[in-house]
Each structure stands twice: as structure tokens, then as C-alpha cells.
Automatic annotation (TrEMBL):
Belongs to the claudin family. It is found in: Cell junction, Tight junction; Cell membrane. Its main location: other. This is Claudin. The keyword Transmembrane helix applies. InterPro entries: Claudin (IPR006187), PMP22/EMP/MP20/Claudin (IPR004031). One of its GO terms (cellular component) is plasma membrane. It holds the Pfam family PMP22_Claudin.
């Protein structure tokens, strides 16, 4: 998604800047990838780096929390360790969500600061990708909190699955 920053020049011509490319046009939009990392602003470089770290941590959190779920066979005999594994995945999700939320908010603050000091025709506004990033961050945090809450709420309970045990009179179970 390219629309991290947008600039409208009248009703016809629009310019969109993203983390990886820039697009412009009015009827037909043409996009170009950034040619050199050295020509990019510090805000784009920092946002790129932290967003990639957040995506990586989300993938690790997904893997770790999946291994800690009751429906997997990993650590089947060690239910307490399995629960800690799921909670660790939740913590990783929370960290990834806060990283993404923080860098997106910082990026927006840079756009707002530039908007205040520049001429109206040369200023950018934040685009749709910012809202998608905020929503994704909040969902990441919410999922992590849910995984941690499930672990904390069951910390005093037994993690064993109750099986039907035979009664004292074995012949009474048969019809």
C-alpha cells in the first residue's frame, strides 16, 4: 500500500509517497520504486526498519503461540510449559503491535509537523496506509493480550483434559 503520505494538487493531480515507492498522476497513476536508500528521508528509513522488525516479530509470535496451543502435539506431556509458550507468543505479539503503533504515530507526527510549517500547496497529509497500520497494530496488541489473559486466567487450574474414567462397577458401563 503506497498511500502513507498524499498530496493533492487541485482535483486532478495526486502524489502518493509510501515506504517503498512513490506514485503520481491524475487519470493514470505511475509508480516508481525509490532508487537509493541514501536519498530517503530519515522518517522513511526509520519507519521501514521498525515496520520490518514488527512484521518479523509478528511471524515469530505466530509460530511460538501456535506451538503453545492445546490443539498441537508439541510439548504434549508438559502442559505448564505449553501454556508458557502460548503466553510468550502473546507477549511477542504485544511488542510487535506496540512497535508498529509507535512508529506509525511518529511518522504521522512528522507529517503533521511538516504540514504546519510548509505552504499549503507543498504539504502532504497522511494517507490510508496509516489507518491500516494503526488497525493492524491494535489487532496485534489485542491478540497478544488475549493470549496472555488466557494463560493468566487459567494459571491455578489444571491443564489436563478430563477423560471418562471407568466406574467402580465395570459391567454397568455396558448395555
Amino acid at each position: 500500500m503506497v498511500e502513507w503520505k498524499k498530496q493533492s494538487q487541485g482535483k486532478t493531480h495526486k502524489i502518493y509517497d509510501g515506504l517503498w515507492m512513490s506514485c503520481s498522476g491524475y487519470e493514470r497513476t505511475t509508480c516508481e520504486f525509490y532508487e537509493s536508500i541514501f536519498k530517503l528521508s530519515a522518517e522513511i528509513q526509520a519507519t521501514r526498519a521498525v515496520m520490518m522488525l514488527s512484521i518479523f516479530l509478528s511471524a515469530v509470535g505466530l509460530l511460538v503461540s501456535t506451538l503453545g496451543m492445546k490443539c498441537t502435539r508439541f510439548l504434549e506431556e508438559k502442559n505448564e510449559t505449553k501454556a508458557h509458550t502460548a503466553m510468550t507468543g502473546g507477549i511477542i505479539f504485544i511488542v510487535a503491535g506496540f512497535l508498529s503503533l509507535t512508529i506509525t504515530s511518529w511518522y504521522v507526527s512528522q507529517i503533521v509537523h511538516t504540514y504546519k510549517i510548509s505552504h499549503r500547496l507543498q504539504s502532504f497529509e497522511f494517507g490510508k496506509a496509516v489507518f491500516v497500520s494503526w488497525a493492524g497494530s491494535l489487532l496485534n496488541i489485542l491478540g497478544g493480550v488475549f493470549l496472555c489473559y488466557r494463560r493468566c486466567s487459567r494459571s491455578n487450574e489444571s491443564f489436563r483434559v478430563n477423560h471418562l474414567l471407568p466406574s467402580s462397577n465395570p459391567k454397568s458401563n455396558y448395555v
